[in-house]
Design a protein that fits this description.
The complex is a heterodimer of chains A (112) and B (110). With 112 residues, chain A is mainly β. Chain A is 0% helix and 53% strand. In chain A, the strands form 2 sheets. In chain A, strands 2, 4, 5, 9, 10 and 11 form a 6-stranded mixed beta sheet that branches. Chain A has a 5-stranded antiparallel beta sheet with strand order 1-3-8-7-6, with no helix packed on it. In chain B, strands 2, 4, 5, 6, 9, 10 and 11 form a 7-stranded mixed beta sheet that branches. Classes of the chains: A mainly beta (112), B mainly beta (110). Chains A and B meet through strand 5 and strand 9 of A and strand 5, strand 9 and strand 10 of B.
């Protein structure tokens, strides 16, 4: 079983729509969770960390469900500029980025 | 602020040729440094990481090697490239548990 699994998509949504991605992880002791955004042929960039209580940044909301071992990313009022691949990232330990496990990414295309 | 530089951006190399990709970090000292590879349609695979000068850990056996000659310099090398070495190579440095990536090198072995 993979450490991190994501639905690869693609998700094609109209502008203004709300879209949600889920990501499951296998290690129940995982400590840190992140969503990264990767534009086509570019490097991944940190979008947001995911906190136990859930967190929001503008149109983006991240949530963690430890019981079911998944994290989610909700994007409201989708913009064309949101088109990208979203990577789910899990760190089973408290420190050390050498322990980061990346999902294969979920591709989102926002359609005019 | 911290910045990470990686070059070249694109590279086309024949099978059997050597490889050298360089990565430097500015604005921080003693960073943890990483090399990742992303194959087409696949996730990021950690190749090497380094916690200090001359300290290299390899995550997977492969045709590549890494070196860290200076605190903020990380080099990825190969003596003879294989077709399977093609991919998108990313250098990264870490602050606590978050990773920050360089612009990447798209390597095509022909």
């Amino acid at each position: 079983r993979k450490e991190v699994e994501q639905d690869p998509g693609p998700f094609n949504v109209p502008e203004g729509a709300t879209v949600a991605f889920n990501c499951t992880y296998s290690n129940s002791a995982s400590q840190s969770f992140f969503w990264y955004r990767q534009d086509c042929r570019k490097e991944p960039k940190l979008l947001m960390s995911v906190y136990s209580s859930g967190n929001e940044d503008g149109r983006f909301t991240a949530q963690l469900n430890r019981a079911s071992q998944y994290i989610s990313l909700l994007i409201r009022d989708s913009k064309l500029s949101d088109s990208a691949t979203y990577l789910c990232v899990v760190n089973p330990y408290q420190t050390g980025a050498n322990n980061l496990f990346f999902g294969t990414g979920t591709r989102l295309t926002v359609i005019p | 602020s911290q910045t990470i530089h990686q070059w070249p951006a694109t590279l086309v190399q024949p099978v059997g040729s050597p490889l050298s990709l360089e990565c430097t970090v500015e604005g921080t000292s003693n960073p943890n440094l990483y090399w990742y590879r992303q194959a087409a349609g696949r996730g990021l695979q950690l190749l090497f990481y380094s916690v200090g000068i001359g300290q290299i850990s390899s995550e997977v056996p492969q045709n590549l090697s890494a070196s860290r000659p200076q605190d903020r310099q990380f080099i990825l090398s190969s003596k003879k490239l294989l077709l399977s070495d093609s991919g998108f190579y990313l250098c990264a440095w870490a602050a606590n548990t978050e990773a920050f990536f360089g612009q990447g090198t798209r390597l095509t072995v022909v």
